[in-house]
Structures are given as C-alpha cells and as structure tokens.
C-alpha cells in the first residue's frame, strides 16, 4: 500500500460496511420470498421497501460525506462508483420482490431459487469484503469469487429464459416472469460492478 503523509477520512469504511450489511438483509428477504405463499408476500415486500429506503439513506450519507470531505481514503470517482453500485443491488432486489407481488405471481419458475442463492452468496462475500477496504488486504479472492458467481448467474439466467420460452407458459405470463428473472440478473451484474470497483481501488492503492 502507498505511504501517505496526509490523514484520511475513515468514516467511509463504516458506511460502505453498513450498506453491504443492508444488502445481506435484502438477500435474506429474497430467500424468504421463495418459501412464502401469496398472502405473505405483501408483508415481505413492505420490509424489502424499508430495506431499500435504508440503502438509499446509506448512499446519500456517503455522497454527503464525500462532498464535505477534503481528503478521501481513495479516489472520489471510485467512491461514487462503489456507493452507486451497492445502491443498484438493493434497487434491483427490491424491484424483483415488488414485481412478484404486483403481478400476483402464483409460482416462480424452477431456477429462480438458484438465482437468489447466487445473490445471497454474493451478498455475504460483499459484506465480508467491505471492512477489508481499510487495509486493502484479503480482497483478491473476493472479487474472483464474485466474478465466478456472476458467470454462474449468467448460465442460470439463460436456462431460465429457455424454460420460459418452451411453450409451457402463456405469452403474458412469459412477459411477467421474464421481467423478474431479468431484474435478478441485473442484481448479479451489479454485484460484479462492486467487485470490479474494489479491484480497481486495490490496484490503485497498491
């Protein structure tokens, strides 16, 4: 790591960690949605909305701190990118839950549980990685594994699309379910964006 003569604003580390912990909460709500009947989904969606609002608050706090800090722990554009990508993850997860409720989906297609399991694992890894931004240590395995998970998510997504278009579903149902699985895929992509930003930061700081 580069030697610095100037102090750094360290509150960013705690805020990134809090944002990532909130994403774990969101991923658990996604898992809960899988086993819930239709009558329980609205309440889960309400809790997910609360988590998404908490994520927005965390992102705004990071941006506010960034705008009021003269010295930052790493490049400003990387802080913006990392905070924005973390926020995107929560937005996509909340959107997926909301769509399930709004469309009154009775049964999610087989394979969605695999998508959500990948997201839950990526959430755990991201939450574990954020505190390591302080030292920039033990991060390589994190971004390698998240990229592997994103590749796995791509494969699951393609299989789900093939399943949806196999003629079993009515056209309107295909449109609804496709939108849900597409949003979950976007969440996996956002996890990869976070990991790529962390890798960029680590390379610059080495």
UniProtKB/TrEMBL annotation:
UniProt family annotation: Belongs to the UPF0111 family.
Top-level taxon: Bacteria
Protein name: DUF47 domain-containing protein
InterPro entries the record matches: PhoU-like_sf, Put_Phosphate_transp_reg, UPF0111_domain
Species this protein is from: Streptomyces caeni
